[in-house]
Amino acid sequence: MNVSVTRRKILFFTPYATRTGSEMLIYYILKYLDRSKFEAGLVCFAHGELLTDLPADIPVFMAPGKFSLTDKIAFHLGFHPTHRAIKKISNTFKADLWYINTVMLADVVKIASELQIPVISHIHELSAMYSQISSKDFETVLTGSNLHIGCSDIVCKCLEESGSTHVKRLYPFVDLNEIHPDPEKVKQIRQEWGAGPDDFVWIMSGTTSERKGFDLLPEIALQIPEGSKIHLVWVGHSSDDGLVYWTKRRCAKLTNVKVHLIGAKKEDYYSYMDAADGFMLTSRQEPFGMVLVEAAWLGKPIVSFASGGPSEFITPELGTVVPNLDIALFVESMIAWNKKLPTFNKELARQKAQEFSVENGVAKWQNIIEQF
């Protein structure tokens, strides 16, 4: 006897479709979704680079994130262009569930409530981002969602403290199969940096923001003793703002440490990561940090501030968690790992990373959805 299975239709919402950790997670879900159980569509508010990499069977719908002149006129006449676009998309892709990938899309939650569509909000943010939205919008996300998924225990705790009564934890996950550094490229990169065999390179990956601690880079460098043969590398999108300008000027004056600000490296990203000897997470606040999984898979010891989620990943065998913003101890820990590198257990680090593989992550995600 054949039993037909009804596929559940899920409409995902994500802001920019860029290669940030939270949006990469949606990309992985859409890529590895069990097509026998689920049918998915994606709504985005900007033409991000991830849209070109999505599987062909995922329909993409665009909603205006920035208003044209016509949109602005319509808005002042009482027609909200974004709301109108989302409702039109809803009529086209009649979903059983909306899956909203941030705390920043309160308007989408409002529309779902109006249309009586169940909502899951996947939250990747801590308090630094809560200040970027109004209390009313934050309350809307909390009360208008049928389920919240937090990316770490610390995020789940914040949601529960804010009043959410239905919270599940789902750690971020990484497609470890895509991590293929090129050994020759790695050698070339170290030569470009002027890093000799006895030099120790510490790398950080992230946007050049205050939350990520970009401005702490020169503070860390100044604490490193002369003659330590240490390089500091920052890979990631560089913002065009005063904090970045100020930090770059300070880095340019350093003489005891070589600092390399190399920008975003999409094509050879993992080769750049692998060219380093250790990974430093300088974030003031970090919900989890998918890059920690990448660093562990590549066999790099990690030094991080106790900025939230990293404490849930890093064990003493993998690295050191330093009290938040204790820069002196941060540098002391970096130097200690320089000396301990020959005894670092890379296989143990890879085993830890394997727990956060895309196969494990998508299976856990689908279990949450099926229970819901």
Which characteristics define this entry?
Rossmann fold, alpha/beta, 7-stranded parallel beta sheet
Tell me what you see in this structure:
This protein is of the alpha/beta class and 372 residues long. The chain has two domains: 8-173 and 357-371, 3-Layer(aba) Sandwich (Rossmann fold); 177-354, 3-Layer(aba) Sandwich (Rossmann fold). 39% of the residues lie in helices and 17% in strands. It contains 15 helices and 13 strands. Strands 3-2-1-4-5-6-7 form a seven-stranded parallel β-sheet, with helices on both faces. Strand 6 (147-150), helix 7 (153-161) and strand 7 (167-169) form a beta-alpha-beta unit. Helix 4 packs across helix 6 (135-144), helix 9 packs across helix 13 and helix 12 (290-297) packs across helix 14 (346-354). The radius of gyration is 22 Å and the shape is globular. The relative contact order is 0.11.
Draw up the topology in text.
Layout: E1 8-14, H1 21-32, E2 38-44, E3 60-62, H2 69-76, H3 81-92, E4 97-100, H4 106-115, E5 119-123, H5 127-130, H6 135-144, E6 147-150, H7 153-161, E7 167-169, H8 183-193, E8 200-205, H9 217-223, E9 230-235, H10 242-252, E10 258-263, H11 269-274, E11 278-281, H12 290-297, E12 302-305, E13 319-322, H13 327-340, H14 346-354, H15 358-371
Parallel strand pairs: 1-2, 1-4, 2-3, 4-5, 5-6, 6-7, 8-9, 8-11, 9-10, 11-12, 12-13
